[in-house]
C-alpha cells in the first residue's frame, strides 16, 4: 500500500512546529531580557565582595585595568593592595579567582566562581584551607601544584584531593594575577 503525501499533510505539521519554536524562542528571549540585569548585578556584587576579601583594609577601589585590576585604598587614600580578577578553564568550566597582592606578595586568594566544578571535589578549591596556601607567596616566582613540581624548588600548593585539574586552574589564575601585577604595578609602588 502506497501512502500519498499531500502538500497539506506536510505543511500543517511544519507550520505547527515552526509556531511552537517561535513561541518558545520568544519566551526564552523575554526571560533572558528580564533576568540579565539581575544576573549582572549579582555578578558585580560577588566581585565586589571578593575584592574586599582579598584586600581587607580597603574601603574603596580604583580601576587600574578595566574589569581586571583594582587598587584598594584605605580611608586616607593610601594604597593597601591590589585586587586582581582572573579566570581560567577548570575541570567543568570557567573558574574565576580574585587575588589580593601588596608589596610583592599575595595577601589572599578568593575563588569567587567555580559553579561548574564537581561538587565535593573541584568546588573545594574555594575552601579556606586550600586558598590559604597562597598567602605570603612571592609574586616574582611561579606557583605550582606540588604534584607538578619534580625539582622541589618552586613555590608549591597541595592540590585538593581528587581535584588536581581544578587546583591547577586556580593556581594558573593566581599566576596570571601575579604577572598582571608585575607588568602594571611593580616598580610603581
TrEMBL record:
Biological process per Gene Ontology, one example term: electron transport chain
Subcellular location: Cell membrane
Pfam families linked: FMN_bind
Family, similarity comment: Belongs to the RnfG family.
Keyword Phosphoprotein: yes
Membrane topology: Single-pass membrane protein
Sites of FMN phosphoryl threonine modification: 164
Ranges annotated as spanning the membrane: none
UniProt protein name: Ion-translocating oxidoreductase complex subunit G
Ranges of residues in domain FMN-binding: 90-181
Alphabetic keyword roster: Cell membrane, Electron transport, Flavoprotein, FMN, Membrane, Phosphoprotein, Translocase, Transmembrane, Transmembrane helix, Transport
This protein's record includes keyword Ion transport: no
Gene Ontology cellular component list: plasma membrane
GO molecular function: electron transfer activity; FMN binding
Subunit structure: The complex is composed of six subunits: RnfA, RnfB, RnfC, RnfD, RnfE and RnfG.
Cofactor dependence: FMN
Organism, as annotated: Ruminococcus difficilis
EC number(s) recorded for this UniProt protein: 7.-.-.-
Task performed by this protein: Part of a membrane-bound complex that couples electron transfer with translocation of ions across the membrane.
